[in-house]
Amino acid sequence: MTFESTIVYKGRIRIMRLLAQNGEVTVNQMIKKTGNNHGVTLKHLRALEKSGVVTQKIVGKTRLWMYAETPRGHKVKDFFRAMEAQE
To answer: What is the domain range of residue 76?
Structure first.
């Protein structure tokens, strides 16, 4: 799967924008903010994680998602933050 095919979905774009705005986000927060259902949200997160864009950490019983500390994760985060700054 190419990077371009990973980020082409609207649901993934919504997730990446939300992460750029908020840093660490739970799946439930993503569902509320993006309008995606639980299964779709997890599918998008797994694809973004596999491509090196996002990662997760577990704090107690909470699973937090954030941009990965990878070159790709940094570039995507910077792109979405720049887009937010222009709006």
So the answer is: 3-86
